[in-house]
Automatic annotation (TrEMBL), chain A:
Belongs to the complex I subunit 4 family. One of its GO terms (biological process) is ATP synthesis coupled electron transport. InterPro entries: NADH_Q_OxRdtase_chainM/4 (IPR010227), NADH_UbQ_OxRdtase (IPR003918), ND/Mrp_TM (IPR001750). The lineage of its organism: Bacteria, Bacillati, Actinomycetota, Actinomycetes, Propionibacteriales. GO terms for molecular function: NADH dehydrogenase (ubiquinone) activity; NADH dehydrogenase activity; ubiquinone binding. GO terms for cellular component: endomembrane system; membrane. Keywords: Membrane, Transmembrane, Transmembrane helix. Residues 111-403 form the NADH:quinone oxidoreductase/Mrp antiporter transmembrane domain. It is found in: Endomembrane system; Membrane. This is NADH-quinone oxidoreductase subunit M. Pfam families: Proton_antipo_M (PF00361).
TrEMBL record, chain B:
Its EC number is 7.1.1.-. It catalyses: a quinone + NADH + 5 H(+)(in) = a quinol + NAD(+) + 4 H(+)(out). The gene is nuoN. HAMAP family: NDH1_NuoN_1. NDH-1 shuttles electrons from NADH, via FMN and iron-sulfur (Fe-S) centers, to quinones in the respiratory chain. The immediate electron acceptor for the enzyme in this species is believed to be a menaquinone. Couples the redox reaction to proton translocation (for every two electrons transferred, four hydrogen ions are translocated across the cytoplasmic membrane), and thus conserves the redox energy in a proton gradient. Belongs to the complex I subunit 2 family. This is NADH-quinone oxidoreductase subunit N. It comes from Nocardioides panzhihuensis. GO terms for molecular function: NADH dehydrogenase (quinone) (non-electrogenic) activity; NADH dehydrogenase (ubiquinone) activity; quinone binding. GO terms for cellular component: endomembrane system; plasma membrane.
Amino acid sequence: MLTILVLIPFAGALVTAVMPARPKMWAFGFAVATLIAGIVTMFTAPDTDRVWMEPLGVHWALEMDGFGKLMVMLTVVLVPLVMVAAVKDHDKRWYAWALALEAFALLTFLAGDLFLFYIAFEATLIPAYFMIGQNGGPGRAKAAVKFLMFQLGGGLVLLGALIGFYVVSSQAGPPSYLISDLAQLDIGTTAERWIFVAMFIAFAVKAPLFPVHTWLADTTEQATPATSVLLVCILDKIGTFAMIRLCLGLVPEASAWATPVVVVLALISIVYGAVLAIGQDDLLRLIGLTSLSHFGLITLGIFAATREGLVGSILYMVNHGVATAAMFLIAGFLITRKGTASISSMRGLEKATPVLAGTFLIAGLATAGLPGLSQFVSEILVLISAFDYHWLVGVIAVSAIVLAAIYVLWAYQRIFTGPPQLSKQPVADLNRREIGVITPLLVALLFFGFVPGPLISAAQPVVAPLVDVIQAGE
Amino acid sequence: MFESPGISYATLWPVLLVLGVACTGVVVEAFAPRAARFNTQVSLALVGLAAALAGTVMVGAGPHLGVATGEGALIVDGPGVFSQGLVLLVSLGGVALFAERRLDNGVSAFAGQAAALPGTPAERTASQRGLEHTEVYPLMMFAVGGMMLFCVSGDLLMLFVALEVLSLPLYLLTGLARRRRLLSQEAALKYFLLGAFSSGIFLYGLALVYGFAGSMSLSEIGAAVAEDGSSPLLLLGIGLMAVGLLFKTGAVPFHSWTPDVYQGAPTPVTAWMSAATKIAAFAAMLRLFYVAFGAEGDIWRPAIGVVAVLTMLLGASFAVVQTDVKRMLGYSAVAHTGFLLTGLLGVQNDSFGSTQAVLFYLTAYGFATLGAFAIVSMVRGPNGEAGSLDRWAGLGRTNPWVAGTFAVFLLSMAGLPLTAGFIGKWGVFAVALGAGQWPVVAVAIGSSVIAVFFYVRVIMLMFFTDAHDDAATVVTPSYATTVVIALSAVATVLLGVIPGPVLSLLVDAGGFIG
């Protein structure tokens, strides 16, 4: 059943690529089918485990725990919405790549085998590379190469860790890449630390974390907003997902050993990303940089390694996905109307486009963590764990909220308030299709803001064993 | 009394068949009328290679595997037969590419008459009369025969003879390009001179090793080495022999011929040679180092490690600045040699060891490079092939299938998952790391990142850049080339997604037999 969930979008990508008539409808159909399959597998999905490459100990093993469920839901919900939002400015190749990306992303979230995870992890780059390079701003080819070089660099370092696991595993007996088997391995302290460093570099590039974040801003600026949604809201989550699943899960002692460094990097990301975002003129770049700040918070929550922090981070990943997707899509609608992403060339749009302005404000405030919107709960949890870790860390992390309020409100003020610009063509408000795309996201933001229970209960069981392992290791 | 050596024809007939086909080809060349030669030669070569391939598979599955024959001069064991089969597979593709006559208005990629100097009336006459070098097929068969012997050589003399048999035809084939003949001849001369030098050095090393061990047989040398490994005679011998083999594989600092020869040779020759020579040379190198010098691993491993590091770094770095696609692939071949040498550093064991990793890498690389050069031969401008990378811009828009397939080969060479190259890279890194060679693996990972850059740049050029005015066009080839490209692409993807069967085959094939 889980195999089918992965195969649907993959088949969809192939069908979309060769279908001469109405490929976008086909792509959307497959995305919806994936959504349905995703919902079904939420309730009933036995794990799969088949031997794949025997001499290497690689298995085709898929499993879905609470954490996986959340990430899968985020993915399967966002993809069809993005497809509707993106219909005007993408061709069928983009749709095919988007489905391929979805398939590989789902595979990473479901993989119960490290080798399988790695293959999917790297394979996501190919569709992403083509999506960035084929649609977007004038500097897109360069941005695509920069994206790929950073990601592949990280990926090859991860390959080192992968091989390290093989060497350790084959010394202990017949090699196996099953994550459950690897967790049992007795790795020496030095080897474990090296493996951790290699894995963390790869996931930090993916996540992204300071100082390997520089691809993010360029990519979000040059790619289309729809591509950015898939990249930032789904693909980058693989990084933080893997930090929890693989760093904490497989090498907990080394994770505890590295925590001070990681926390500092996370704090720099939080503050630096937010400060850079405040000064940005390019709206897409601004949103990209806010994500840098948010990923810093997520990483902080993961490595502070308390129950609250981990739950908060997992929630944050979902909520950030929803809120940032809304931001990117709204920004995209705005940019289609104005023909530019430059904030300084927009002014006083509030009158002409009240719905657009309203949705922008809600999504923006959600990313800034306003109470009543979903991100608030997760942010509080992360901040509590930050204070638990060290009061100074907490204080610095809290500044993120202030800074977030500044960049959101200031961007809103610059774009929407003030005297309207005199232009030849009036700017139209959101049409029905666009409202249809944004509404589910905003509803989700509001709903989980008031009722975070389901998310927390999905995350709790995942977190408990991890925290136990880590605290036992300390 | 002289006793003739016993020869096991049951295991050697594929090699003898290929050499026999080569000789028959010479006879055909002498007696068949000109009009009939092309068809006769091509079908002879194809049938011969196919029969030899079937024979190799039979030998591999048969009861005679692992016997020493010809008084120990030839050892037909699992890895040897596997590499022989691989050479034959690649050569079948090579013949198909050699026979391609649709790309260049009905003539092959080879010079009409090599003896006619470029730019002379004789050359014009040759091209007006539509002359064609059908000698290339027997030449190729001789080289294939040499390669097959190289893969199973069990003693030093056989190793040298096979090396010469495979090298000499290659020098000639390199100089036979129809277009840009001066470049081609210069490349051939360079290849020949450097190759002759390296053969000499190899022979010198061989003599020293013989002087040390008092025997030509690899297994007896192995026993002698295990007894007394610190003799300067032996160390010098190992070094000099390694130089000869490293030259053949294009390792730094003996790589300087590679880009020139890759660029100058007719593209079908480049395609076939780059894959087949590397397979044969590494098969022989593995056997030499494991069987004969295995006991001295501590001494040659660091040296090979240094060579591997230099080869990877230099190959990848120089490839970045190339503007010609064949030169770029040439330097990329140098970088791949470095990765293969990394695999050589591992240890032999009965499951997934160095031998298996290197042979799998060769399989992956062989298909990717054969397909990639086949595509290079299709992308043309008014003056023959469009080598300059600028002219490849926008190919992804005009010819999505061709550019897409080329991208698959490049991604495989870059080692991205779901292609054969990834499993290959994983394998050689894993065995090297397993042997504790982590500094080399770290450099290998670093140079992989550099290498990715130039592969990706070509993909970017093809897909994200608009075509120039003088953009290259894709000429529709005959079925032969299309089939070669399609099969290579399928093999590249298939070996990446389900490498299990081939890996199991390699593991079952076991290690080298002394």
